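Quick illustration, no need to memorize.
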Amino acid sequence: MTENSFISPMSMIKIDGEKIKHLREQQGLTQLYLATAVQVTTDTISRWENRRYPSIKKENGVKLAEALNVELEDILEEQQDDIEETNQRDSVAEEEISRETISNEQKGTSFRRSWPLLVLSLTLFSVLMAFIWYAIHSPVVEHFSAIRTAPDHFISGQLFPVLIRVQGTADSASSLIVKENIPKNSTIHQTSPSVSSGRIKGQQIKWLKKVNQTSVFAYVISITGEEGDTISFSGTVANTSDNEKQTAGDDKAIIGSHHWADSDNDNVISDKEILTVYDLYSDIGDIDLNIDLIEEIWMGSGYRWDPQTNSYIVLE
């Protein structure tokens, strides 16, 4: 060994960065491996190899030589005179840079770990604030729906019912205007709720009522025309927020030769058909649907329509 091997533990030695880099690459080692073995940072290893710090602590030199599987002399600068390090600035600077680099790496790692949580927290806070703002400033919308129920056929000049079921979802009652356009050649015989003649103008019926949950508007109508003619229904519902929508549901019916309750046109009112009539119309108590005739046909074996007398003949 040279005199460099017997310097004091606090002495500095001069290393050959090119030799270190050559030995590391020759053995397929990484800067990270050397940094871990010597217990310094990869930035420090890079500085040693690039000769930015040719003087290092002997103890670090020994660890470095062991990591490279060589003797300490093999990584020392050639023709180096053993000197006692008189300039401690290199050592102090090396240690300070090493500590600063490690500290920055630790801070960067901590920041990278906490960054997703910070982003998630800010996102949730933004969503919450937006929801609160919307809840405070958005207008109250009263939701409702209106569905029409009408027979798909009827006999010219004979009475049949039309229902409009309005479903409200507001916690408190909401005022609604229900309008129903009357087909041509038709006559309104009854309405529920009842309306004055002033609310039946031209070809339109108008109801004004407060609705909380479900309300039923109904009318009994007769329409004259030729067999096979198609009749169209239309109407709207509007609330206090000026929201107006078309009434959905049944919007067409055909003039035929069968009772409106005989849905399959087989000249018989079956159990299913009479139950359907009761399910749909039993809660409209102030309208005369001539239920007695429907029950009589149901109890008989059938019926036929007599256009000469404009009446139903019930078959026993």
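Residues 89-137 form the longest helix (49 residues).
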